[in-house]
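Work Package 3 (structural annotation) set out to generate three-dimensional models for the target panel prioritized at the project kickoff. During this period the team completed the workflow that converts sequence records into discrete structure tokens, so that structures can be stored uniformly alongside our sequence database. As a representative example, we reproduce one entry of 302 residues exactly as it appears in the project archive.
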Amino acid sequence: MATLLREGLRHRHVVLATAAAVALCGLGCTNVVREEVVAAAGGGGGSGGGGPPVETSTTSGSSSTQPQPPPDRRPGGLAEARCPDVAAEEQYCFTLDYGQVLLIGMESGSVCELAHIANPSLLDDSSSLAAIGDELYVCSHQSGLVHISAIDGGTEVIGVPCAGVTNYFDGLLATDDFAVFEHFETPQAMVAGEAAEVWELDDGNSRMTVHGTVLYTAWHSTNELQGYVLNEDEQLPTLPLQGFDDWVNGLSRTGPGDIVILSTGNITRRFNSVTGEMYGELAIDATGPLQGLACRFYWESP
């Protein structure tokens, strides 16, 4: 059961001077402020129920601290400009191999090389990945939080202990021990230890992604997902994944009610996040083993 321990101020000022000098750029489409309809009834879409469930916008005026949805738009980062064909696809994702930052298309499986990573030895485990604009963040067992530029491959050890990280609204959701999960409005706030929200969860999984305020986690090799509604103090029933029992090398949202898992052989599989039904499989045309997914997508306003 998730327990809200504390909630900080949700002001939107930008901290310019930081000890880590982390550069921010743009607003990722992964930062969708929506509530997922977690009830399975009526959630499927398309013939056979294979499509993703419907989501509703977070428009309630009952909480003035709830961030409002960004406009439906594609981030105008340099990474997208360098890879226009991949970025033109409805869904695409940042990922890493041992020495490169890649952008991959989730319709074609095509790969666009963005940058060579300056110090790949820092990335002993990058299965958990977040992207804010053109800046990527991974948690290394050896180094803690590591910042990677998707433009020039530069790496910087932030030095904050963490074991998993993903996008949450405009900022980051991170965990050090898979028991305490913290929301930081900026990477600088994470450096300063200034969490906006903190949850204590009965969870030991090392891969994670967020749908609105629904956190999904996975063990490194599994056939199921665990879910938590962070803003409602609710643990969801375990979600079995249809036809899947494999390594989870990356986990990300790719659309409303849609989760993608990167697994053995650089195969991505897409699942309905309510029913667990698998309705898509795609081989990524990359030579090395890929690690981590941070996806962006178009969506339609309800």
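The helical segments are 78-82, 84-87, 187-192.
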